[in-house]
User: Fold these one by one.
Assistant:
Number 1:
Amino acid sequence: MPSTTPKKILAANVRRIRNSTGLSQEALADRAGMHRTYISSVERAERNVSLETLFAIAVALGVDPTELIAAPDDGEV
Amino acid sequence: MPSTTPKKILAANVRRIRNSTGLSQEALADRAGMHRTYISSVERAERNVSLETLFAIAVALGVDPTELIAAPDDGEV
DNA sequence: CTGTGACTTTTAGTCCGTT
DNA sequence: AAACGGACTAAAAGTCACA
């Protein structure tokens, strides 16, 4: 059982989804109306983002906000 | 049609779930390690809570964090 | 028990860089 | 393209008195 913190869950989800879309951190930041360094920081699990920011990132990634905080599905057959 | 903001979604979900558990704002605040007035403020959609706070409230309510930001299900059967 | 405005402290989020 | 640091500003956390 991993010491899975909210920040780590978000970080992993953002990075995974962003990579799957082929966007760079810069491009994502731009879409979400944020700074490049901030997205970088979020993906390193250093940031405790606000609700509005969470939704903004979700929109920029084209996913539902709930996907960003969904716990990693360990046993997905 | 709804000008459904993240704050409103959270507010509605917290209040609905809290009421369904029979907890008072005070009791919930206590469980979540927060102040009574803070929960009140969240339920009035005045607060743009952080990720950690979101998770803390979810734990206190005994639900998954994703439930707190799930959009209201309009056409539920 | 809950709403509300005012308030101080802490942190989210920006922007300048270098590696 | 991305990690990382410092300094800064905007906003969230957290509390209180009173309705």
Note: The two ends of chain A are 18 Å apart (CA to CA).
Number 2:
Amino acid sequence: MSGNDELGDGFRREGKATINDVARVSGVSKKTVSRVINRSPLLSAETRERVEAVIRDLGYVPNPQARALAMGRNFLLGLLHDNPNAQMVLNFQEGVLEAIRDTEFALVVRPVNRHSVGMLDDVRHFLERQRLFGVLILPPISENDALAALCRELGCRYVRMGSAALDDEAHLVESNDREAVGQAVDHLVSQGHRNIALIAGPEGFRSAQERRNGFLEAMARHGLSVGPGRVAPGNYTFDSGRAAAERLLEASERPTAIFASNDEMAAGALHAARQREIEVPAALSLIGFDDTAIAAHIWPPLTTVRWPIISMARAAAYKLIHPAEAKQQPSRFLSDLVRRASVAPAVKQ
Amino acid sequence: MSGNDELGDGFRREGKATINDVARVSGVSKKTVSRVINRSPLLSAETRERVEAVIRDLGYVPNPQARALAMGRNFLLGLLHDNPNAQMVLNFQEGVLEAIRDTEFALVVRPVNRHSVGMLDDVRHFLERQRLFGVLILPPISENDALAALCRELGCRYVRMGSAALDDEAHLVESNDREAVGQAVDHLVSQGHRNIALIAGPEGFRSAQERRNGFLEAMARHGLSVGPGRVAPGNYTFDSGRAAAERLLEASERPTAIFASNDEMAAGALHAARQREIEVPAALSLIGFDDTAIAAHIWPPLTTVRWPIISMARAAAYKLIHPAEAKQQPSRFLSDLVRRASVAPAVKQ
DNA sequence: GCCATGCATGACACCGGTTTCCGAATCAAG
DNA sequence: CTTGATTCGGAAACCGGTGTCATGCATGGC
């Protein structure tokens, strides 16, 4: 390779070729090299090839810091997330990475704590300091309007992921949780279930509201009533799901199916059923939401709703990178039901 | 705030105060402002205060790109990981973030695919392009020596996470998997188990080797033999765990306990046992490894080995940021056994 | 009273790109 | 052969910081 002097600790000194080296060696000006890099059309093919050869020879790679400084913007996308669901966050990262692969963008992650009082200040510091190109905001903190306002104030582009209309199309990628829950209920009803209970998510979450409303609407659509004993609150954790299921299963007329607002709570519900020696799915059908890793790995494998998070991530990243075309990109994504083994036809009690 | 003109799209133009503005307003030179920012000791208290007041007034925040360019290094840490275990990756991110909170560092993530032929080139492109301050490498790709060599070649600092001595102390943070598996075996033996089987991890993984060796050593220590029918290969996936368990459970003299080299395979084994109507833990005890989310959420909750990943991440980030003191930082971390409900005393068959 | 000393500060080049503006070369038309 | 348009390439300023070195000033020792 090109002359690298070694440091004591075995690392090469910053002896990388610069645009000046390329210009000197190929006998053109910096600007011409810059044009080659940026694929400017007004260049003779001959010059371009000559410079490109030198670039290869020298192993030249443009310095992103210098570019960022000169162009007044960098190529860093931020990911702001709280962390209820590791698999989801990681899948999202995956999707974003797919979108920015082969570009000069990189992804900077920043977990935040939605319960900390200093959360907004934290994010403010982060954004001011790093001057990111833009940020992607994951639920549940994507539902925080103050956060979006902060981004606006700081001049930071953003896209929110959500389960309802939180913002205009340019700043939002959403899944239709409500409709998806409808499918889940339809499926249960088609299997003959009439006494269906809901384990709801935490009040503050938009996704929880949507899933609850989707459930209630679908039940109403089928002409099924949902008594007060048929809805139990949860907070998206395993334990809350177990506790909620215990309450539901105590009811005089036991439900034959439970829809849990996420997989973790469904797993908790399964746990509760097993302790009461209620067979799943023979005596109790169960549907979850999110299709996290856990859904496929419990017994019986959980029927659940999968939302296309990787596609959504890709779309979100794309919106962020190409703000001009953001509104053309799809904003709404459809989830679908993954049928596994936790649902069976209802039996008469 | 300081005069911001708005763009059509509602975002503030890059009208942030620069070091020049601060210098002009406070009547000192750029350099002096720079000294204030960098807490240089040779400054009169009076000047410092005056400049600091102006900085506050103007809401000035130094531009990291400019700093990076001038200083020849940026403040970005990279995280290279393959993705068998979302919870682990995310916990690791958390630990790193803890370490760099309140510093100017940020974390850039980069999932890579260890099975892709172009993996090394991929990483090379990434490192050359982004010029990170350094990278953290997670297992299993941390075991790839070519990757470490690449970092050296490119002059990129690195720290590898691993389960064995992969590198020198300055570039490694390791967990003692071998010893931890020993504890797991001890526990099983103390419960009266003698016929203990192993579901091994994939050949290529150092962690798998360590866990296998730890198992064999511990069994030998207890004077217990491990016949060929007592070790089944797996590849860290749920399905491979199930298949391995099926083979083990077919043996003429069935094992009374199985140690699986990770939780996912343990979950698979549980699945297999259930299909054969073998009660866990009554008729079969099970221990996993990693203490991922799944361990606590299956039934029965899985006894498993937890390694202190957040502490390890913190140490790794610290080593990366302070290379001079890297060797003083701890490199070896102890894992411990989390006792849940998947182990019971052995019964005579 | 003078010069060496030390401390606080400033002038200026520099990091490695991009952008603006302008000049040179080429070529067709007059 | 000259003119004008067009294409291509270069010089220099600029982005916003940091490093080097020089300078002014107060201090102190002789």
Note: The first strand of chain B starts at residue 76 and ends at 81.
